Amino acid sequence: SAVISQKPSRDICQRGTSLTIQCQVDSQVTMMFWYRQQPGQSLTLIATANQGSEATYESGFVIDKFPISRPNLTFSTLTVSNMSPEDSSIYLCSVVIGLGQPQHFGDGTRLSIL
Amino acid sequence: SQQGEEDPQALSIQEGENATMNCSYKTSINNLQWYRQNSGRGLVHLILIRSNEREKHSGRLRVTLDTSKKSSSLLITASRAADTASYFCATDAESGGGADGLTFGKGTHLIIQP
Question: For residue range B8-65, what is the model confidence (pLDDT) as tens digits?
């Protein structure tokens, strides 16, 4: 399976600021996704990061709040914009090497907003 | 919305006993995956079972899938203290053609008492 590096691993941010999370994979992958895990909850899909085009967002998530880039087949970023305490969560990227293959996750970014 | 439901939500057993967790889902799927998460860290992929498979083994893990009942179970045999974690099932909807993100269940928190 691919090695997935996610940065930062954790951060504490001030209300109203933005943070960009990076996800780097050591090999080219077919699909990349971003998920959110609110405290004590399960994971919810934010969006599919599409290489070279706009991300596909799930219901309840919008580009202005969670802009995503995927410039190539090994790298993606998720920005959490204009943060509020409700955005305090773990954000995880995941990858699929090929269709029908398992989805593998990075270690996540634990984000706390004061 | 979450389509998977796990039960029980929490399970506490003695070391050496077997642990069984169940998962139900609502729509037709391509595959179902089980993950482990230790203390809010990243997810570790355990097993992927395809919709045309009924049972799969990996070491002390056994997964079954019943597509007619839209349910799956994860059995951990001879449990160890290190198995203490949260376990999630996640489905890949058939409608996505294998290119969609996953829908996660709420998870089962497993505690192995030494």
Answer: 899 999 999 999 999 999 989 999 999 999 986 889 999 999 999 999 999 999 999 9
Residue B3 scores a pLDDT above 60: no
Q: Collapsing DSSP states into helix, strand and coil, what is residue B47? A: strand
For residue B75, give the nearest of B20, B15, B3, B7 by alpha carbon: B20
CATH number of A4-113: 2.60.40.10
Mean pLDDT of chain A: 95
Contact residues on chain A for B10, CB-CB shorter than 8 A: none
Give chain B's domain count.
1
Q: Which of A1, A4, A36, A43 should be substituted to probe chain B, the one whose Cβ sees the most B Cβ atoms within 10 Å? A: A43
Q: How many contacts (CB atoms, under 8 Å) link A and B? A: 64
Q: Which residues form the domain of B92?
A: 5-113
The answer to whether residues B31 and A100 touch, using CB atoms and an 8 Å cutoff, is yes
